[in-house]
Amino acid sequence: MNYDQETMHLSTHLVFSGQCREAFEFYARTLGGTIEGMLAYGETPAAAEMPADWSAKIVHATLSFGGQKLMGADVLARHYERPQGFYVLLSEEPAKARAVFEALAEGGTVKMPLQETFWSPAFGVVVDRFGIPWEINAEAAEG
């Protein structure tokens, strides 16, 4: 198959069990991003099919930062599965990597403390308070 590399885009889409709005507002502050859109179930034709207390839950959110996009949505408990088998990998300069790691670790679970490795001046693994697994990688300074 021949794919047009100019039109192909890869984005991360995260699912939550009702905390998408809170998570994306937190990620926007933590990552210095901009929420481009956040659509609630109550604002869509699907509103009638959702429980009344899900009217303000998010059917689609988009956060942009550093030329990247992060997408997200809330799903009903019967459809929600805790994330596993992947990490959201964020690479940043060391001071920012430390700040992001510390923010994500607050209320979350540190799986590997941020530390020097053979490939990075600082690398760590954390599951944030929303259940999203992250790998934070500080990029070595060039020179």
Give a description of the structure.
The strands form 2 sheets. This protein has a 4-stranded mixed sheet, covered by helices on one side. The chain is built from 2 helices and 8 strands; from the N terminus they run E-H-E-E-E-E-H-E-E-E. The relative contact order is 0.18. The longest helix has 12 residues, at 20-31. The radius of gyration is 17 Å and the shape is globular. Strand 7 and strand 8 form a beta hairpin. The protein has 143 residues and is an alpha/beta fold. The protein has 2 domains: 1-81, 2,3-Dihydroxybiphenyl 1,2-Dioxygenase, domain 1, CATH 3.10.180.10; 82-143, Signal recognition particle alu RNA binding heterodimer, srp9/1, CATH 3.30.720.110. The N and C termini lie far apart (40 Å).
